Sequence to fold (244 residues):
Amino acid sequence: MPTTMLQIPTADGSADAFAAFPDHGGQCPGVLMYADGFGIRPALRAMALELAGHGYYVLVPNAFYRHGPAPVIRLPEHIGEEVRSAVFAELMPLIESHTAERVLSDADAYVRFLTARPEVSAGPVAVTGYCIGGLWAMRTAAAHPGQVAAVAAFHGPVGVDGPGLFSKLTAQVHLGHAEGDLTPEALGELNQALDVAGVSYSSEIYPGTIHGFTMSDTDAFSASGLKRHWDRLLPLLDRALGNS
Fold:
């Protein structure tokens, strides 16, 4: 799959981004992919390439571009428990500074940039996100009801904004929760809120998973969880974006 690094103009400067897309030379539907808090790195590039191989133009922005180009902090090849606390000590100030206002401002820029790419076909796009990126994906979809037709969030804190966010969603939604993040009772409450808001969704706990299960460079990785993620994400995108 062809890949490239890009610069996305934003209200606060320029965000570096990774893009992967099919090599057939034609147009294809666009997908905005938000990384987890660890940001753009080989594991995320591999996921973007996998998705591009199914016929999508995948744009992965560096959410922390205000602090420098990716990787904003130095990451080990494997983010194991022995280094996790030290990594998070550097990451948390970046995550906390990325306010809801910044998320929405950047989302405007990302969606505008993605839909204007010559490789991206006309029509709606989709958004997917991981961990904190799942929350950003949901906020992006809620803020762009006419442009985002599908949104997926995996092991993300999607309930933080509550019914106020859900009521703005028009996209088809899939939420894949880690068993270690959400009890069945909490899942029921979340799904009830989505029902009340009239959202078209699927929302489930992935068995035997803990937070971060999609990320192959962490101790949380679950091969079965990642496969289930693709089994849910790809049909969602195909339905919403008319890709086959």
Strands lie at 3-10, 13-20, 30-34, 57-61, 125-130, 148-154, 172-178, 201-206. The longest helix spans residues 223-241. DSSP finds seven helices and eight strands in the chain.
